[in-house]
Amino acid sequence: MSVPGSKAIVINTDGLYEKHKTIYARSVKGVFDNWRWIMVWVTQALFYGLCWTSWGGRQAVLFHLVERKFYIFGMVFWPQDAIYLAVLLVISAYALFLVTAVGGRLFCGYACPQTVYTEIFMWMERKIEGERPARMKLDAQPMSARKFRLKALKHALWLIVALWTGFTFVGYFTPVKELAASVLAMSLGSWELFWIFFYAAFLYLMAGFMREQMCKYMCPYARFQGVMFDPDTLVISYDPQRGEPRGPLRKNIAADAPKTGDCIDCSICVQVCPTGIDIRDGLQLECIACAACIDACDEVMDKVGTPRGLIRYSTENALAKRYTAHDILLHLLRPRTALYTAILLAIIAATAWSLATRIPLKVDILRDRSTLYREADDERIENAFTLRIMNTDEAPHRYAITVSGIEGIAIVGERIVDVPAVSTKTLLLSASVAEGSGHKGSNPVLFEIRAQESSAIAVREKATFFLP
Q1: Secondary structure letter of residue 216 according to DSSP
Q2: Which alpha helices (DSSP H) does 67-112 contain, by range?
Q3: How would you classify residue 9: left for phi > 0, otherwise alpha for psi between -120 and 50, otherwise beta?
Q4: 314: nearest Cα among 335, 297, 336, 300
Q5: Phi, psi of 337 (to 5 degrees)
Q6: Within the chain, what is the greatest distance between any pair of CA atoms?
């Protein structure tokens, strides 16, 4: 609705958002490409294979949500061990900070799941549709039987990989062999079905379509990485002193012709970039440090007969001050990296010590709140307790239960309990004292649960005993 006499205000939104352009990354061979594929094989062998690995008669790595137990090789973690999850996150954060301070976005370029699966999906795309020119030509063509066949085959393979990945992901939360049997019997539970298809759809979308958009617009790491960089951080760098001014390679150049740098402006470094940037414009947040441009440029330098390293891993100070490789290595150890390393090693050492000395026994004691106390036939005062014993060891144990804290206090009834391996047993027990042994009201007492097979496996828990 317009107001009489008012002027319309028109806001021009053209240019606020750049139209997405499909990136047709060219394949490249070289040292860093080999390292990327090594990381693809290592990470995927671990991911796809670890859930099928057995350890002690069970799945080696299993986060069993139904049983509320996490099995990691020979260790069993319970919900009460959530502190170790927090410590793991802290260790991961500091490790990322250290790697970023030393080598920039190495994690993004070689181990990030988005990078790894994009690499796998792009490999399938190249095998089916061809190299960069062939893919560009195919997409420009109208739909035909050949184009439909190639596109359908590509997407079918993408979906197969995505579904298998989703199945594997859920196999870490539901025993994978049981999950496979449920799939074959078509009797999957609702939550397993949801997460398999959700994870598959997410992977299919991110690695098949969004690719660089995930890195450029959605990943928060790209946004805050700058605060972890400094002038001595190794990043993918173009050497302008050596490369500029750019110019095509020419033969029989006149002696008075202006000289050009080593960069022949072939733009192959741009064509191989999975995020579509020009590294010659300097470091950009879109750069994931995959080093494809280094392999491409080195290949061109070999062909034109000039030294490699026009694009290389270097630092801001190294380019400005012309550091040698030895100087760069010396500057990698600096206060920031030393601090990160010290903190990381200290946390890892403390966690390792905690895990090594962890007692495989947990106890919860809850006093019966419905009745403060009761008087037994022998005129002793009794309090009822609920005792929950969690044997986190992979061997069964027999535990002896004792109580102290008030003179003459004793357990009424069963004092020995057997608990199978990696299981919980709940029992009701009572403790009694002679009337007048303690003071009126609440009295602190201490329950001790000790394994008869090993005196080192013992836990003491505080409780309260009420007297009239």
Answers
A1: I
A2: 82-103, 106-110
A3: beta
A4: 297
A5: -70, -35
A6: 118
3-state secondary structure of 466: strand
Return d(Cα 176, Cα 172) in angstroms, integer: 7
Distance of CA 259 to the CA centre of its chain: 49
Would you tell me the crossing angle of helices 31-50 and 145-170 to the nearest 10 degrees? 50
Asked if residue 245 lies in contact with residue 265, where contact means CB atoms within 8 angstroms, the answer is no
What values do phi and psi take at 446, rounded to 5?
-130, 120
Residue 138 CB partners (closer than 8 Å, separation 6+): 129, 130, 147, 150
Question: Which residue matches tokens 């560009």?
Answer: 136
Residue 422 lies in a domain: yes
Please report, for residues 281, 316, 350, 393, 447, the alpha-carbon distance to residue 459 in angstroms, rounded to integers and kept in the order given: 63, 56, 21, 14, 8
Same domain, 222 and 243: no
Residue 67: its H or E element: none
CA-to-CA separations, 111 to 30, 36, 99, in angstroms, rounded: 18, 8, 12
Domain-embedded: residue 330: no
pLDDT level of residue 2 (50, 70, 90 thresholds): very low
For residue range 239-290, what is the model confidence (pLDDT) as tens digits?
999 998 988 877 766 566 677 888 999 999 999 999 999 999 988 888 999 9
Number of domains in the chain: 3
**Do 76 and 149 belong to one domain?**
yes
Q: Is residue 351 part of a domain?
A: no
Distances in whole angstroms, Cα of residue 146 to Cα of each of 87, 194, 267, 335: 54, 34, 31, 59
Side chain identity, residue 165: T
**Assessment of whether the complete model's pTM goes beyond 0.90:** no
| CA nearest to 425, candidates 368, 348, 364, 468 | 364
Nearest residue to 38 (alpha-carbon basis) of 111, 125, 96: 111
